[in-house]
Amino acid sequence: MYALSTYKIRFFLSQIKSKKMAKIKHHNFLNTVHEVFTDAKQAGVLHLYAGGKSFSGRTLEVNGRELYHFGTTGYLGLEQDSRLKEAAMNAIEKYGTQFPLSKSYISNPLYKELEDCIKEMYGQPIVITKNSTLGHLGVIPSAVDDNDVIILDHQVHWSVQNAAKMLKSRSVPIEMIRHNNLQMLEDKIKKYQHSKRHIWYMADGIYSMYGDYAPVTELMALSEKYPQLHFYFDDVHGMSWVGKNGTGYVLDQLGELPENVLLFGTLSKTFGASGAVLACSNPELYDKIKTFGGPLTFSAQLEPASVAAAMASAQIHLSPEIYELQQELRERIDYFNACLSATELPLIDQNESPVFYIGTGMPKTGYNFVNRLMQEGFYVNLGIFPAVPVKNTGVRITISRHNEKKEIKGLVDAMEHHFPLSLEETGTNSERVFHAFKLEHKSQSKSQASSELIIEIFNTIHQVDQTMWNKYMGGEGVYDWEGLKFLEGAFQGNPKKEHNWLFRYVIIKDSEGIPILMTFLTGSLWKDDMLAQAEISAAIEHERKEDPYHLSSMVLSLGCLFTEGNHRYCDESHYSNKEAIEALLELLEKMEHQFGAKMTVIRDFEANTSWHETLYGHGFLRVQMPNSCSVELARIDSVESYIEQLSSRNRRHFRKDIQPFLELTQSEIFSKASAFQTQEFKRLFGEVQKRNLGLNTFSFPDKLFEQMNENELWEFVVLTQKGKPNSILGVMFCYTNQNDVYVPAFVGMDYDLLESYATYRQLLYRTIERALAINIPKIDFGMTASFEKRKLGALVHEKYAYLQTNDNFILEMIGVMEGQQ
């Protein structure tokens, strides 16, 4: 019932009519990914098709243009080696296009030779799998026992995370740490070292987006300190281009494969064929995985052509030639690094892998940059959500032996030329990009905002003209001028940091001083699990008994956690409207940095807002909020008349579910409550809040209720048992906005008597009755329990929010926890 601001990919809310928490919009994550990919597809940078009648690896044809290929994962170019091609063709001629039988029964005639070759490469027993995704699905559930725990690096590949989540059904705990954060990893190890047999840390050897490494040496040192620590490395992007026999980055760091490490490599990508390989030096564990590993048993085996091509590649890996190929690639990587070092391009991680990432920040800048490079004759990959945070969009560039130095230099020259042009054309600057990736940026960039705009920022509502504010922002929620004055008083100067909010008021005017855009923002502490499943919040709350600020972050939001509604005035007919929106978004980036916020939320939009394209281009994701409800009371003179104009179905609901209980209670309106009543109101609100883990927020400060009791614009609709005035069943906390809107901001209820007196339904009815009695034409009924409000004639409105996060860690961590509790 009480107002909220929202930001997560999955949205949940409380059904206050009962003790149960009901989740909503559980498919929001997939919807959001679909929207992001659709946006990129429409920009012409995703879901493309290569053309042409042949493929060399050096170039590829896109939309009729021949482009130099800087997006391959075949770093050594072996997929074009004539020996692999010839072996594949011969295998098809001899054995057909496939060997349609499970490997558990019999493998095709080439398998044994391939297994022997790969085993020789690793010097350890191996398992060949159809691909790495199916391999993870087969190996992880077999390797991890019920008495183990899994810890995931939050950037480990999706295929590893997906396979690990299968173990939720066996009640295996799954934790997540921030990328390469060894201190956080050790904290998790300490949490489980006395209760779990094995602690599995799962990570990539080389990460596919930024090309950075797992800290293998430091991790092995940690395992010496904690013997139950085991590792599961997915090193498919480290294969072939580095290490003895091309066995990859991780084994190159390890030297020998210890028994506490499971290592996944690939026979595709740089290896040039198809399939994946698991290396395991623990004989008992190897036998367990090899004997039965889910997809390893039931999935189709590699086709003869793939096995033969892999054998040909393995022979190259076992020969001195592999080191010549590695050196040729190393020269190209070093040359690309040297060319980049002479520029100011935002290279996100400087390393020696063949994977490079140039940040663009906003998606629309990334689209623009990729398209410009394609026009210049270069193909690169777009890095976009969910592979990276939306505001960390960029281009992933991969270097291969196919690339010649003149093409590498040409790409760098093209990027250096077009990067500032992309920034300018999409209304941003390099300083904002460097800030998004937390990179040092020495030169200062000018704001893209129009010099004709007048941007005013105020730290308190007292600095804002009351008449002007109410003209443009009044008449909705608790954020007319008087409402914000009240909120500033309640949420400042409190002992606890979660009860102190930073308020900012933004007014953007044209050169004549006419407002184009107006809004207010708050910076406040949110629980990261605010809208996660109730079971997840319950588990996190258990940890908060020791650390009350565990998993909490500063958030910058339009509006605040107390209010709901439009939260902004925008004159969309004004010729500078788009410039004003751009100026606001640039200002939000600066405020986010000033406040130390981890997320920015722009709230309460209708489905078809004109802001959508702009917000998406700036790296905001759209998520659907709980529906908002309102009641129109104009030209209705009594509550009896209101009930009569309801639909027949809703009238039956009133007669059956509300009217019989009215005789059991009495309702009173208090503009000023006694000390006893005020304490009861606090307690009853606490009853609602502590049960509302589906909307898990910090508490409100005590002085909020005291100041509410002293403010003439607030009153309390109080429901008591008939004849027992001190037996308070429930209370609705109501604000009057300029005599135009009645706002039942939140509710308190005695849950022991909730169903006996239909308390919530009665309070809804009594709120309508009160608004009619004081001639207020509209009620803003808030977001929760819309089903109950609709039955009393409320109009239901779809609402959306747009959010921008610094990283995906919290979203992914909540996703990992779902289903474990």
Automatic annotation (TrEMBL):
Gene Ontology terms, MF aspect: pyridoxal phosphate binding; transferase activity
InterPro entries: Acyl_CoA_acyltransferase, Aminotransferase_I/II_large, AON_synthase_class-II, BioF2-like_GNAT_dom, PyrdxlP-dep_Trfase, PyrdxlP-dep_Trfase_major, PyrdxlP-dep_Trfase_small
Domain BioF2-like acetyltransferase, residue spans: 651-789
Annotated keywords: Transferase
Pfam families referenced in this protein's UniProt entry, alphabetically: Acetyltransf_6 (PF13480), Aminotran_1_2 (PF00155)
Reported cofactor(s): pyridoxal 5'-phosphate
Keyword Thylakoid part of the UniProt annotation: no
Stretches assigned to the Aminotransferase class I/classII large domain: 70-405
Entry annotated with the keyword Transferase: yes
PANTHER family hit by this protein: CLASS II AMINOTRANSFERASE/8-AMINO-7-OXONONANOATE SYNTHASE
Protein name as it appears in the record: 7-keto-8-aminopelargonate synthetase
Organism: Flagellimonas taeanensis
